[in-house]
Specification:
Distance between the termini: 72 Å
Strand content: 15-25%
Radius of gyration: 23 Å
Helix content: 25-40%
Strand order of the largest sheet: 2-1-3-12-4
Shape: elongated
Number of helices: 9
Length: about 270
């Protein structure tokens, strides 16, 4: 009798395993469940409110894992815990992949919350006074964006040879208003809008702090290299589910959701053509 009981258990486990695999793949063997990962805040919101509903209309089940740092989303992708992530720009993911021996590729660039210069002391760029103190991010990538934004606004001039992975305030070559720059952790920048003359806040941190992007004195004219993108393992790049992610992001329905729920987000060049 024991061997018959063992046989029944074995058959039951086999059936359950088969059912489990059907949740991931359809009868044609194609993937039907997509595991996304995104940082807490606007990009998790973009997955949940814009990407997932449109993929679900195509027959996919979409799950989203939220991360609170910029390291684990790529580790999870590389390890196969998630299928795709949304949180990073081109310069970051290429450097991270090279440093950590990963083979990652972008699927498509998405609308991205721009960095802005915020102030409760001044109501325009022109009104910023000589010697004002501006808080800026201390990580090189956000700092490079900050310097470019401030240069575009006419506040400073920076060296033409700024390395976006090694930028610092030392790259400022002209500072006509003698502005004082204090470098701090990017996550602290929103709260410093009240205590300092001005603060250059990356878009994701501004939104996480319930700031209105349109309240900025100036928003960065963000190059596409600094816009976030959906990233997957390169080996998956030609899979149908990846092509479907690209298709829904390119759709009019996706752009309408962005216009309705993500006001102030800068659109990539492909959306403007």
């Amino acid at each position: 009798m024991k061997w018959k009981l063992f046989l029944v258990i074995l058959v039951s486990v086999t059936i359950l395993a088969a059912c489990g695999s059907e949740e991931v793949e359809g009868g044609d063997g194609e993937k039907k469940t997509i595991e996304f990962g995104a940082t807490v805040g606007p990009y998790s919101d973009m997955v949940i409110d814009a990407i997932a509903p449109l993929l679900e209309e195509m027959g996919y089940e979409v799950n989203n894992t939220e991360f609170t740092d910029y390291v684990q989303p790529n580790n999870a992708l590389h390890n196969g815990d998630i299928d795709a992530n949304l949180f990073q720009h081109k310069i970051y993911y290429e450097a991270f992949a090279e440093e950590n021996g990963m083979d990652l590729s972008e699927v498509i660039i998405v609308p991205t919350a721009p960095m802005g210069l915020y102030s409760n002391s001044f109501d325009s760029i022109e009104s910023i006074e000589d010697g004002s103190k501006i808080t800026i991010a201390n990580d090189p990538t956000n700092l490079a964006r900050t310097l470019i934004m401030l240069e575009d606004a006419g506040l400073i001039e920076i060296s033409e040879e700024v390395d976006p992975l090694k930028a610092s305030a030392k790259d400022i070559v002209e500072n006509p208003k003698n502005l004082e720059f204090q470098e701090v952790e990017a996550a602290q920048l929103p709260r410093l809008v009240d205590s300092e003359d001005a603060s250059a806040v990356p878009g994701n941190f501004a939104l996480s702090a319930d700031m209105d992007l349109l309240d900025a004195l100036v928003l960065e004219d963000m190059p596409d290299d600094y816009r976030n993108r959906v990233v997957v393992n390169t080996e998956d790049l030609e899979e149908q589910w990846v092509k479907d992610i690209k298709e829904i992001v390119e759709s009019d329905e996706f752009e309408q959701i962005i216009d309705d729920k993500f006001q102030g987000f800068g659109k990539p060049q492909w959306m403007l053509e």
